[in-house]
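Long-time lurker, finally posting.

We've been working with CoA transferase (Bradyrhizobium cajani) and I want a structural starting point before designing mutants. I don't trust myself to interpret raw outputs, so I'm hoping someone here can both generate the structure tokens and explain anything notable. Sequence follows.
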Amino acid sequence: MGGVLEGVRVLDFGRYIAGPYCATLLAEFGAEVIRVEKRDGSEDRFVAPVGEGGEGALFLQINRNKKCITLDPMKPEGQEVMRRLVATADVVVANLPPQTLRAMKLDYDALKAIKADIILTTATAFGGPGPWSDRVGFDGVGQVMSGSVYMTGAGDPPYRAAVNWVDFGTALHCAFGTLAALIERGKSGRGQIVEGALLATALSFTNATLIEQAVINVNRVPSGNLGQTAAPADIYRTKDGWVLCQVTGQPLFKRWARLMGEEQQWLNDPRFADDISRGNSGAIISARMARWCAERTTQEAVDTLGSAMIPTGPVLSPQQALDHPHIRAAGFMQDVDYPGLPKPAPVTRAAVRLSETPGKIAARPPTLGEHTDLVLAELGYDNAAIAALRKDGVI
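Top reply, 14 upvotes:
Generated this for you. Predicted structure of CoA transferase:
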């Protein structure tokens, strides 16, 4: 497909998000990624189904630009196919528990015995070492164990985020680590293990809150959408919807006070002297902002705040996000056809742009086993051998 990673071959044994999306990012910038699935399709292929074949929205999002083969790696013949595949690869991505990697002979020692400079990129729920190293988990375990869920909502009950930010954050870390490992291999010729963990990602994202707690023992409690370390920072009702406004730093607060037409009131009161003071008095400032927003439509509010260079945005439903003029004009998403879909799927491009070597969505996500024969032929299997593997339930 071309791109900065052209010539890099990645085997994607990933499931759900952290592994597959890491591999997707590599594919978007030119790596050849071969997704290896169960013969009847891996579970993550069918999450939130949208097509005739049951393929889900998540699969369509994070598996573009890949080839797909089916394989039972637990059979001896499947192990031989894997051995040949690994011998041609630069990177193996497998966000599977350590015991599963060992059972599938995808652990680093087994891979290195086949190809000495292989890079294994893996992610677990809890990382290690530690008493929970072998336990499994999804995105939510990182959210609840990092302090994030505790601080979300009004506190009873606590709320986790609907978006799997821990999974996607882990995928980003793993992609970054894989690129670093490829650079190191180019210098030294050595492969290595790149290891991410959902809990590590979640803790890295909430780290400032944890630092504050450790250093000054502030013991914060959740406060809904009201910010605690600056103000105004909240979600406000308008005549026809909701808008978010976030003001942090003295220059922004001065702009906000000027927009309110009340500079003397807000800028000369010691309760509002700096961000943390404003956070401590956030309810007072937020009440003023709430009155201002209630007098305007959402469009009027975001246009006025935007013109004043104050961070703001409307609260959009999924359909409104698809229809928003800036989102459409910026080209963040690309319509991708897929067999059996009633209409093209709007797939987001990688959320980073390189001016000279940009990534691209060059191919739709693969159908189940779409490239099995092609990849096996490249590995030296002839038509009869491929037919025998299919008859024996290996592919």
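Before you design anything, note these points.
The chain has a mean pLDDT of 96.
The longest helix spans residues 165-188.
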